[in-house]
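Technical annex, item 7. During the second reporting period the consortium partners agreed on a shared format for inverse folding records so that results from different sites could be compared directly. Each record opens with the tokenized structure and is followed by the designed sequence. A conforming record, contributed by the partner at site C, is shown below for reference.
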């Protein structure tokens, strides 16, 4: 069940970022499913212990999705909060992230936002 939830979370995150337009970095290569450019979404995590579960799911998503989306996992350890804040402040923050040190700071600075407005009522149920 946890695997399905993580895959669902990654898919929702990918769709959310796609809807926001321009949040992902576009690549130059064209995919086989049309003229759309491939979008690479960067997923930032600090939980090295879960990489054995995350990596196979991301690999499967990258191989099977038909929306020209590639998810790239970036693992930060140690002073991950500093690395995250630095990347956000320099305009190179991740598209998707797992955890912030201070949620109030992240929300008030616009670094993160609730997904509520992007999810249908049906999905929320």
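Designed sequence (site C submission):
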């Amino acid at each position: 069940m946890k695997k399905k939830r993580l895959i669902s979370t990654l898919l929702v995150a990918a769709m959310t970022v796609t809807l926001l337009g321009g949040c992902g970095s576009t690549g130059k290569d064209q995919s086989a499913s049309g003229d759309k450019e491939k979008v690479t979404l960067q997923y930032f995590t600090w939980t090295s212990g879960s990489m054995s579960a995350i990596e196979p799911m991301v690999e499967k998503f990258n191989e099977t999705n038909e929306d020209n989306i590639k998810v790239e996992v970036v693992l930060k350890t140690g002073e991950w909060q500093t690395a995250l804040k630095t990347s956000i402040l320099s305009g190179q923050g991740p598209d998707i992230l797992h955890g912030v040190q201070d949620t109030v700071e992240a929300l008030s600075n616009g670094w993160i936002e609730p997904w509520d407005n992007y999810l249908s009522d049906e999905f929320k149920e």
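Strands lie at 25-30, 37-45, 69-75, 96-97. The first helix runs from residue 2 to 20. All partners now use this format for quarterly exchanges.
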